[in-house]
Amino acid sequence: KQEVTQIPAALSVPEGENLVLNCSFTDSAIYNLQWFRQDPGKGLTSLLLIQSSQREQTSGRLNASLDKSSGRSTLYIAASQPGDSATYLCAVNRNSGGSNYKLTFGKGTLLTVNP
Amino acid sequence: KAGVTQTPRYLIKTRGQQVTLSCSPISGHRSVSWYQQTPGQGLQFLFEYFSETQRNKGNFPGRFSGRQFSNSRSEMNVSTLELGDSALYLCASSLGRGRPLNEQFFGPGTRLTVL
């Protein structure tokens, strides 16, 4: 059974700091990995999608890496801003029967960026 | 391009009642997945539909059911509501086939409260 762990559970940093969020998964037979952001009481916003054959993806100040063999992914946020404050969720997508579309989520990292 | 829409956004029900939630995917998307989010369990996969067929199902009791219509809109139904069914129910859509076009896009969710 796939398990996804995110460390730390909560993180508070001053504005402008670079930071790294960690995600680990127990079964390396994944199809892809997706990072999401969730604001309080809201739905999920997709940040980055990394296919199993890729090592990293970048979007603006965000960079996500994937090491499938060790079961790890990191999300790097450069020059953090108060608007980055949210819960960040990591989810792995594993083949499940005939469907590739079942995400297993971590519990998330609650990020607070202080002005 | 409109995103994933879910209705209603908020619901209050009492134990023993049943409820139906609706999800309209992004235009052109044929896969719809449903997730339950609670503070204790986090995000858990309920089921996924593609072309009106359920392709995958999570570990939820039979009280949770769903369906998909020919226009890809989906509904999920929960019968005989229990207090523990109080949660944010999220719907996600994706194209449903092909790589890398299986990125999942989430709606804002339906907040269900069972009293």
Summary keywords:
heterodimer; A: 115 residues; mainly beta; globular; B: 115 residues; seven-stranded mixed β-sheet
Account of the 3D structure:
The complex is a heterodimer of chains A (115) and B (115). Chain A has 115 residues and is an all-beta fold. Chain A has no helices and eleven strands. In chain A, strands 2, 4, 5, 9, 10 and 11 form a six-stranded mixed β-sheet that branches. In chain A, strands 1-3-8-7-6 form a five-stranded antiparallel β-sheet, with no helix packed on it. In chain A, a hairpin with a 2-residue loop joins strand 6 and strand 7. The model of chain A has no long low-confidence stretch (mean pLDDT 92). Chain B is mainly β and 115 residues long. Helix content of chain B is 0%, strand content 52%. Chain B is built from no helices and eleven strands. In chain B, the strands form two sheets. In chain B, strands 2, 4, 5, 6, 9, 10 and 11 form a seven-stranded mixed β-sheet that branches. In chain B, strands 1-3-8-7 form a four-stranded antiparallel β-sheet, with no helix packed on it. Chain B is globular and about 40 Å long. The relative contact order of chain B is 0.32. The mean pLDDT of chain B is 92. Classes of the chains: A mainly beta (115), B mainly beta (115). Chains A and B meet through strand 4, strand 5, strand 9 and strand 10 of A and strand 4, strand 5, strand 9 and strand 10 of B.
